[in-house]
Structures are given as structure tokens and as C-alpha cells.
Prior knowledge:
alpha+beta, single chain, disordered N terminus, 14 helices
Amino acid sequence: MRNDRTSIRNRRAVAAPVGLGALSGVLAGLAALAIAELVSAAVRPQAGPVVAVGAAAIDRTPAAVKDWAIRNFGTNDKLVLQAGILAVLALLALFLGIAALRFRRAGVAGVLLFGLVGAVAAATRPDASGPPDTVPSLAGAVAGAAVLYALVGRLTVRRRSAASSGGPEQEQEQEREQGRARGREQDQDQERGRGRGRERGQDEGWDRRGFVIAASAAAAASFGAGGLGRVLKGSAAQDATASRERVLLPAPGSPAAPLPKGTQLRVPGVSPFVTPHNSFYRVDTALVVPRVDATTWRLRIHGRGVIRPLTLTYDDLLRRELVERDITLTCVSNEVGGPYVGNARWTGVRLAELLAECGVRAPSLGGPADQLVARSVDGMTLGSPVEDVMDGRDALLALGMNGEPLPFDHGFPVRMVVPGLYGFVSACKWIESIELTTFDAYDPYWVQRGWARRAPVKTQSRIDTPRPFARPRAGTVMVAGVAWAQRRGIDRVEVRVDDGPWQRARLATEASRDTWRQWSFPWQATPGGHTLTVRATDRTGAVQTQQRTKTVPDGASGWHSVVVTVE
């Protein structure tokens, strides 16, 4: 029995500093992400674990939380989400590394479990391509587990007895000798104790040199694999980039009318009438912007009431008559006074004509479908009323924006643009399918998450200048901004100072009822704190409501106000 206890004691692992266990976990996590990044370059970028888990998190986030994220982080909401995922993974890696010092197999199993989570997330995405999408997460998990197992192995060294091969009698004699030696030399210094341990053939330290070499190799390999993955992904996107660079948009058969004189006010601080594409808002769920090759892109039109299904290429659309229109788009997540509205000159094909060629009829004319479901290459689905798309408005399959092919961020090669509807029910980017169905038969992505099925743009106005908490000088201060009510047009804008009367603002010339309209008001500012409020009236006579509502389910409402201090 005593011999058994001695054997167990001689096999007991000696723990290294906890910090090195944590470092082992971090290096294992780094290896897992790097290998996953490399493999996803061969599969598809959206199959990477961070992107897949992030997309799954977006899908399961309540609408109110998404709205909060957009309101507080704007177009950086996806960057914040990915940073948060990486931070959580780093903490979990630290924990697994520390745990593996005592429970090596459990730590390794934890790494494999997180790989499985990433694989499930990738495989269950709406745009999943099947089992291959699970490979990046699984390959990364195996690599991470191997690194953790190897590093922790360098941090725990088994004690060995040189006499263990001499038989039971020799082991017992050696044990008695060791006990006598400890009694005789208990007052000796630490160095002599280590020397005595070496004489007994024991090793009580962890493998410092081996750990440094293994950790350095793991870090170098991880950075190399991750860098190579980025390079390969960049190379894969080159075909899409090249296809966009080769696009030469034909002159539109129905060009936009020249902007009337006075459309753009000469007031510093007011939003320009045409929003540059690099300033145009972007709100979507794509963690990785799809890079679609226009030469391989296809659009399928099918579903209820489609007598002649149609599949179109990008060149097919270019050969059709192109229409050019100035249209203002608005995101339903735009708070009162918010930035998620922009105006651009769009070039595209009339969607109603394509639908008519397929035999589609509007519901008012007896058509069986009342909902058009647009699907993106990343699996997003948006539902638009068929009646609205076919009622004569300039609903487009857009190919161009402000005279250029669509930027990738804004839907290249093709997106939908429907004036008068919020983007979440009309503005499908990277579109690849149009299915005719009914609102009763199918709920698109945002409807499943509590947003409205139908969402016409509400009449809204915004103060662009002065900015909130500005400190203008007393005297004439130009108050200016924009107002919009697509499909109805803006008839009047009024400004109120504090609790005074509403005063009519000067309107810029209207380009069309589908665009926003600039306005200005010369305010004779007096010293002190003041509140400026704006409201608009559309061409139907409806006055912008004072009642404040949230963005969910069909857009915010209320008057926009700014507080300033006049000096």
C-alpha cells in the first residue's frame, strides 16, 4: 500500500504559474480563429465562426436591442458586435487555459465545444451552403484544442523515480533511504535539496524552454495562417471588384429631369440635396459585405401569379431601357432628427415592367399575390406590397447610384429602390430572387422580429443647423434642415422658438415628391438658452404629428427640437 502511495505521488503533476495557463488558452483561441479564417477563405467568408456566430446573435437579438445598437453605434454597430464577440472569446480562452492546468482534457473539450457552436451557427444560417460551412469552425476547434493540449503539456511535468525499474524490494529500500535522508538533511539549504532530488532521479519543474518554443511557434503559425486567410479572401473578392470596374452604365433612356434652380440652399451646415455614396447611411445585418461577381449574378422572378418565370443576368438588365430618378430613402430605425435618411440619383430598370412581362397583376386587378419577397445573397428577406410596386411609382431594380455602378456597401450588382416605403420593406441589397406570395403565407425577416408588414414613410422634418448645444452669437441665425414625405411631397415647414408661435420657413425648390426638400428660417436670436422646434406639412394637408413614438414597429414620429445657447 505504501508503495502505491509513493507511485501516485511520483506521478503527480506540478503546476506552472496560472498566468501561463491563461496565455496557453489565448494562444489556443488565436490558433482556432486563424485556422478558421484560413479555411473560410476556401469555403466562403460568411462561414467563419465570428461572422456566423455574430449573424446568429443578430438574428436572435430583440428588435428593441437592435434599434438601441443602431441608435448608439450607427453604422459601427457591426464592428462593435464583432469586437464584443472577440472579447467574450478571449475571456473564455483565458478560463479554459487556466482550467486545463488541472483538468487538461476538460479544457481541450471546451475548445472543441465552442467549435461545435460555431459550426452549428454556420450551418443554420439562411444562406448556408450545406455541410462545407461547418468546416472552418471545426477545423479551427481542432487546431485550438491541439495547441492547448501541447502547451499545457509543457506546463505540467510528471515526477519520475530512477529506482522505479528495480523491483518492489529496491523501491521500498529506496523509499526508506529517502526518508532517512530527509531526516538528516532537513536543515540544509534549498540548493542542496534540489541536488538531493536530482540524485534520486526526480524532476519537479515544468518545461520552461519547451513552453517558450511551443508558444512562439503557435503564435507565429497563427498569425501566418490568419494573414494568409485574409490574403486569400482578398483575392477571392478581386473577381467581383473587377466585374464592377468593367461596368459602363449606358445612358438612361428616361433620364432624371435637371434639378430646378434653388433646389440646393446656400446655407452652411444643411445636408446637401444629393448625398454622396460614401456619406449615405448603411443599415443592414451583413457582418461581411457580400462581394458579388456581376458576371455570375442571376435574378430569378417566380411565385404565385407568375405565368412566365424569368431568370435575368446583369447584362440582361443593362440591355433594357434604364430609368434615372432622384429618390430619397429612409431607414425605419431613424429616430426623430436622426441621420438614417439620404437622397441619391438612382439608375435602374422599372420593376413593374419586369413583373408585367412575367404575367404578374396587381391585387387591385385580380392578381393572387399581394406580397413581393425579395431575397438577398446573404439570406435576408424583405417583403413589399405588390400594389405599391405596380401603382406607377418609380420602383426600380437599381444598378447605379449617383452616376456610378452601385458601391458594394449599397448593394452591387443590383438592389431594389421603392420610393415611399421604409427600407426594411423595400430596399433589398444584393438581391438574387423575387418571389410573389401573400402576406398571410410568409413573414419576411423583420416581420418575424416584431416589425410591421406594411410601412409607408411618415412625414418628417429635421434641423441640421444649428447643431444641438451650439452657441451662436446674437443676431440673425440661419436655422435650416430637410423635410421629407415621399410620394406626397412637402408643402410647408414651420419653426417655433421656445413656446412662441409657429413661423413659416422658406422652402427650397422641390425636385420631386419622392425627394426630400431643404428649408431655412432666419431667426433673430437673443441672448440666452432657447429651444428650436420644426414640423412639416405634406401635400395631403397632413401635419407632422407631435406624438412621440419609437421606431418599432413602423417608424418613429414626433417633432425634432434642438437646444442652443445664444451668446
